[in-house]
Amino acid sequence: MEPKSVVRQRILKERDALSEEERGRRSRIIHDRLKTFLPFQEATVALFYASFRSEVETEGIIKAWLASGKVALLPVVIPAEKTLLISRISSLDDLCPGFRDIPEPQGEHLQPVDIEEVELAVVPGVAFDLQGHRLGYGGGYYDRLFGLLSPSPLKIGLAFELQILPELLASAHDIAVDAIVTEERIILPERSSRVARPFSR
User: Fold this and answer.
1) CATH code: domain of residue 141
2) pTM tops 0.85, yes or no
3) pLDDT tens-digit map of 107-138
4) Strand, coil or helix: what is 84?
5) Which residues of 103-123 are buried (b: 16+ CB within 10 A; e: fewer)?
6) Which residues contact 67 (CB under 8 A, 6 or more apart)?
């Protein structure tokens, strides 16, 4: 099995090769599929990520979530502590480039909340496998964040189909996701008992 560093480099190269137009098209399909997912529909407080570079775009889904009157949260990276602070946002206009130019709420727009308030988390990743294992960017921020809670919030990974692999090397501290939404399907890992099986397709 390929080392994580090799997989990370290969998948990022493939993802970066998608044109902006194609990435937007696929992201919209993922948004529409996510909206049909019952656990997502039923949640009222969700942690999102602000997409950057070639990630599945999240601007549209966050705007729709806020417009529905629900509570949207975003992570703020604290590099010195290698942790994530969770902040409520009122608008995407509140964001500005933060750690590694990732959009974050800062200054007067920072509204910290307790991680225990999160009902559902929409998370990014470089790659995912069919068991729900997630390969991140190497910082371990999300693993540490969700490792603080037992059980942690329902976690949904967003990914293009090219980011899905049959199997990834997983470490004991790696936190798996409960569902993965791509432009082609919703993947519900067999090991997850958090999501009703009828929504697999």
Assistant:
1) 3.40.50.10420
2) yes
3) 899 999 998 899 999 999 999 999 999 999 98
4) strand
5) bbbeeebeeeeebeebbbbbb
6) none
